[in-house]
From TrEMBL:
Cellular compartments annotated: Cytoplasm
Highest taxon, organism lineage: Archaea
Species of origin: Methanococcoides vulcani
Taxonomic lineage of the native organism: Archaea, Methanobacteriati, Methanobacteriota, Stenosarchaea group, Methanomicrobia
Catalytic reaction list: tRNA(Lys) + L-lysine + ATP = L-lysyl-tRNA(Lys) + AMP + diphosphate
Name of the molecule in the record: Lysine--tRNA ligase
RNA sequence: GGGCCGGUAGCUUAGUCAGGCAGAGCGAUGGACUCUUAAUCCAUCGGCCGAGGGUUCAAAUCCCUUCCGGCCCGCCA
């Protein structure tokens, strides 16, 4: 069999067969928090973009913010007062926080910042500006003139009859400001205006430039024509027979005289067990939230490793750590080749810094240090990691901090207790004797490494070892009479330090805690009487 | 009812376009490191490729049928 190609290469090769000049378009409506489900569209497009460029075609990547669409309803995250804005274009509605130019900008801004961090740099268009500047006027004229032909295509392809009063153009009522209620009663192609009657009682005339927009099924092919789009990813909702890609394909050919773009159909990202991600149901992890938690490469990796037509199950809890691990492992391996190499390349976001500290380790280090960055740096240094890039370590530690707060499952969390935990009462005499002996040795030793601690604990089971001798002495038994199970000793350590029976790998866990503190804590625990 | 996409190891999946010994990661198991304890390394186990039929020297791959899951066909992306 031939060498395996990454899906983005397959897309690129197909594109190259169609021509050597390309424009890849993406479009998302910023009607709510733009989530990682939406992100798939842009990241998928970016993969195709990078590959087509690599194959040598002149290519442009654009992102269209569909901010001229109406607000559909008062979403759960909106105050009731937004009821009056339902039906108005989201570029014309006030921002929920009061600080952005519009409702649309409020959600667009964090998304565009996210793109930047993901290493994705499309040329950004805003639909309201294109409409207002008159870029759509020719398309609007054509669509109004050929209204019956479009209606026929819609009927033939989707099987639905359009209503007699249907128009491809939705005017904005000058009175109630809504874009989805007014009925078109006529138009003047020379004056470039459209007449309407609105159920609110108002009737009037609006300019084609900015006075309204084309209905979605016509708007999309009009954009293909206007921006000369050759490749476009879209969600599977558009892809079924009779859907908007099907109707768009015929409309763009027969009405606008242009070839439709090469489709890239992608599946949804499912959030854990909660089902598909969707802004309207509130099942959402926003991109900004995700970027608080993981490096951008990991998010790209999530999407690059899976073919677009396959759904992705995403869980920001424990499984996210596995994902991060997998990525780090791959990234650290200089010998990756073939498909994995491709995936890795495509996951790269430019200008992101790296540290050699695994995310998982940092979750422990961070918790040991109670989030104190100076302490974190000390521990990191003692553990032998590269500390030259403090900025990266700071970023990683911020990610870990957010993850622990937002998504970490309880068992991943622990805290070094300031006071001796009361669970210490459950320890056996042997365990207490062990802790006492351990305390003495720690106190008498110089600085101990993770390995030292590890070996030390295991030495407890060896008759004749320093630790073993001290234990038998405390218990008043003969040296060869005592059998020690290291497992129990580890439990004793976790119990007296964390108040729980297990914890992170003991050696480097202990080595990240202050030595005097440990000596004192173990000594206290050994004599603890409730 | 019509259609689209998926179904491959316990889990996540590559491979399907272009037929040629079914691959990987995680997990599990065993081992190594004086060492079961959220680390590392090595090894092993694990598959009726959803099911049935057809084409072929040869099928996870192509064709037909069928089951399961998700979604679309509401000009509400």
């Amino acid at each position: 069999m031939a060498e395996i190609k990454h899906w983005a290469e397959v897309i690129a090769d197909e594109a190259l067969e169609n021509g050597t000049k390309h424009r890849i378009s993406t479009g998302i409506t910023p009607s709510g928090h733009i989530h990682i489900g939406n992100m798939r569209e842009v990241v998928t497009a970016d993969a195709a973009y990078r590959m087509i460029v690599e194959r040598g075609a002149e290519t442009e990547f654009i992102y269209m913010a569909d901010n001229f669409d109406p607000l559909r309803k008062v979403y759960p995250f909106l105050p009731e007062s937004y009821a009056e804005h339902v039906g108005k274009p989201i570029s014309e509605i006030p921002c929920p926080c009061g600080e952005c130019e519009s409702y649309a900008e409020h959600f667009l801004k964090p998304f565009l910042e996210g793109l930047e961090r993901l290493g994705i740099h499309p040329k950004v268009y805003r639909a309201d500006q294109l409409y207002k500047s008159g870029s759509f006027v020719e398309a609007i004229k054509t669509a109004l003139i050929k209204r019956d032909d479009i209606a026929k295509i819609l009927k033939e392809v989707s099987g639905k009859d359009v209503l007699p009063e249907w128009s491809p153009f939705n005017p904005i009522c000058q009175e109630c400001k809504k874009i989805n209620t007014a009925v078109v009663t006529g138009f003047d192609a020379d004056a470039e205006t459209v007449d309407y009657e609105c159920p609110c009682g108002h009737s009037g005339t609006v300019p084609m430039a900015g006075g309204g927009k084309l209905t979605w099924r016509v708007d999309w092919p009009a954009k293909w024509k206007m921006l000369d789009v050759t490749v476009e990813p879209f969600g599977k909702d558009h892809a079924s027979r009779g859907g908007s890609y099907d109707t768009g394909k015929r409309i763009v050919r027969e009405i606008f005289d242009h070839e439709p773009p090469q489709p890239i159909v992608y599946e949804w990202i499912m959030l854990g067990k909660k089902g598909a991600m969707s802004s309207s149901t509130g099942v959402v992890v926003s991109i900004s939230d995700m970027l608080k938690v993981v490096p951008p490469e990991v998010l790209r990796y999530l999407i690059m490793r899976t073919k677009p037509e396959k759904h992705i199950k995403f869980d920001p809890g424990q499984p996210l750590l596995t994902l991060v691990d997998e990525y780090e492992r791959l990234n650290a391996n200089p010998e990756v080749e073939g498909l994995n190499k491709r995936v890795l390349e495509l996951s790269h976001a430019k200008g992101i810094c790296h540290t050699d500290i695994p995310f998982k380790h940092m979750t422990t280090i961070f918790q040991v240090a109670h989030g104190d960055f100076e302490k974190i740096m000390k521990i990191v240094e003692r553990a032998g990691y590269d500390t030259t890039n403090e900025k990266c370590i700071r970023e990683l530690s911020a990610n870990v901090s957010n993850w622990l707060e937002m998504y970490a499952p309880p068992f991943a969390k622990f805290s070094v207790k300031d006071e001796l935990p009361e669970q210490t009462a459950t320890l056996s005499d042997v365990q207490k004797a062990f802790l006492g002996a351990l305390s003495e040795i720690i106190e008498a030793s110089g600085e101990l490494t993770g390995e030292d601690y590890h070996n030390l604990v295991y030495s407890s089971k060896e008759a004749g070892s320093d630790l073993h001798l001290k234990i038998v002495e405390k218990l008043g038994v003969a040296d060869d009479e005592l059998e020690i199970n290291p497992k129990e000793m580890f439990k004793a350590i976790y119990t007296s330090v964390l108040g729980q029976q297990s914890g992170p790998k003991a050696g480097w866990f202990l080595s990240s805690i202050d030595q005097d503190f440990l000596a004192k804590r173990f000594s206290e625990a050994s004599t603890y009487r409730p």
